[in-house]
Amino acid sequence: MTTPAPDLKTLIRRLEKRHQKKQAATALIAGTAVLGLTVLVAPLFGQEEVAPLAVEPAPVVMPASDAFEEVRLEGKAAIVYDLVTGETLYEKNSRSQLPLASLTKLLTVYAAAESIGTNATITMSDTALLSEGESGFSAGESFAFGDLARLALVSSSNDATAAIAETAAIAKATTGKNMLASAASALGLAQTYALNGTGLDESTSVSGGYGSAKDIATLSGKLLQIAPEIANATVNTSISIRSREGVLHTLLNTNPGIARIPNALLSKTGFTDLAGGNLAVVYDAGIGHPIAIVVLGSSRDGRFTDVNTLLNRTNEYFAGVNNQR
Question: What are the extents of the domains in the chain?
Fold first, then answer.
């Protein structure tokens, strides 16, 4: 039986299929040749197989903000305040108005420094000597303001502070209370006011001065700016000054642990029955980077522990920041 000859269309389709098969075969042969050539030529040019890069895990860095997590303090209020950037690194009721006790002396010395020069004469009056505590002064004894101010802050001397407040108020032709109010207002210390210059309790229910941790941090920074020689003296373990009459007075710092704080710039303690234990410290956390740490409403010993806790956490904070750069 004879097979019928394919029509023209069928013949054309067969020829097209043969042509496509030839093209595929040619492409396969060409691709194989190129691959073989690459394998042979590559070593000639020193090209080696590159192993995948070993990606090391990024170092685990504690976020800076975590440094202050779960801080436990005895104090009712506290703040860690960056005096350079104005940033609050940590706070606990930092704007609550609380009794200041002898932290009020920072305001008194600041107000006086604004009113009289460091060489102005301060004479110890009978009224000033009635203040609580004994610093070894005599009525009529006189001092340069700068010297007496250093002693007043280092030893928290009430009679020295009272004498400073009296003299500065007279120089401004006002009362001591108005002088302090004016200074607080000029600094924008919204929660701060003082009934006396020493911070001693006026009664069993009224403190001699009130303010917030944030206000005291700000005030500490301002005192460092206008009277650094007075502020810096507060980090010494003791203070010695001589009256214009030649009498030498030496008193200890009321912060016995200040020598253990590296790069300390300022320290001021406070304690009364109403206030409890207060403490303000400024230290340099880097080159020219002062940080204020303030604790209010702690206990006599707890204020030191609280500030030490915040100091350590602040160092952790800056270590974390530096590691992240």
Answer: 71-324
Residue-wise pLDDT tens digits, 266-321: 999 999 999 999 999 999 999 899 999 999 999 999 999 999 999 999 999 998 77
Helices (H), the chain: 8-41, 104-115, 126-129, 145-155, 158-171, 176-186, 213-226, 228-233, 302-324
Q: How far out from the chain centre does Cα 131 lie?
A: 34
* 0.85 exceeded by pTM: no
pLDDT digits 0-9 by tens, 166-197: 999 999 999 999 999 999 999 999 999 999 99
Write the CB contacts of 322 (distance below 8 Å, at least 6 apart in sequence): none
Least Cα distance to 233 among 153, 130, 142, 319 occurs for 153
Q: Taking the chain, what is the end-to-end CA distance rounded to the nearest angstrom?
A: 92
Nearest to 103 by CA among 161, 27, 55, 174: 161
Architecture of the structural domain at 71-324 = 3-Layer(aba) Sandwich (3.40)
**Any idea which residue has 């700016």 for tokens?**
225
